[in-house]
Amino acid sequence: MGADIIDGKGFAARVRAEVAGHVARLKSDHDITPGLAVVLVGADPASEVYVRNKGIQTREAGMNSHEHRLPSDTPEADLLALIAQLNADPGVHGILVQLPLPAHMDAEAVINAIDPAKDVDGFHILNVGLLGTGQKAMVPCTPLGCLMMLRDRLGDLSGLNAVVVGRSNIVGKPMAQLLLRESCTVTVAHSRTRDLAAVCRGADILVAAVGRPRMIPGDWVKPGATVIDVGISRIADGDRTRLVGDVDFDSALPVAGAITPVPGGVGPMTIACLLANTLTACCRANGLEAPEGLTV
Fold it and tell me: What residues form the membrane-spanning segments (predicted)?
């Protein structure tokens, strides 16, 4: 028997439907409509597609979508002025500046100019600190989506051994913090980890977030473990290319208890959790309880 395949696409659709239900009740009970502002500087093709999809899914959830597209040569001061305007706009509850930014802009300064309460990416230094100290924070979307899938699959995570392979600020570090909050025993592994294979084999929960295609083979996976594959890389396959994750899916499938595929696993959860974060930010801004299960 092979592992259960965790359907991220289906799970994300359920999250979006839940968000839409809460948005409808906010409108009917409080006359409030959550608003998400997305800022794109330049015309990176991948970012264009991503921003377009965000806009579509934001509107489908019943939220207001505010898109701001700036030329690639926009001065940083102009971008900061736009962010200040959005910070002051009561109709905007979430602000996301699409990365990467042009080389002449300081991404860290731009992110930290966003009101932390509207920082639906969870990248502001204040939210990083709040998450790290176990307080109420806006949580980065991809780790939040991973946690939702783990909770759905395993229920109570307390006491489980969790290994996060990767230490990025976007996924690895916040993922480790979220698992600590769930009372897991957490190891963060990386390029300098000694005997990475042995470390991975000890994991009840294995989260791979490195960006190296198929670096984790099936014999690194503990039998019955739950594997969350965040990585996504494009590789040559004959005269075509295809997407693969950090885990060698084919060799891990007979070993793991459950595994996310690539594509169709973690990826769809990112925008779903962006909508969930926008809903959370809107509720908090209006003194309302954020819906349980959609935040931490």
Answer: none
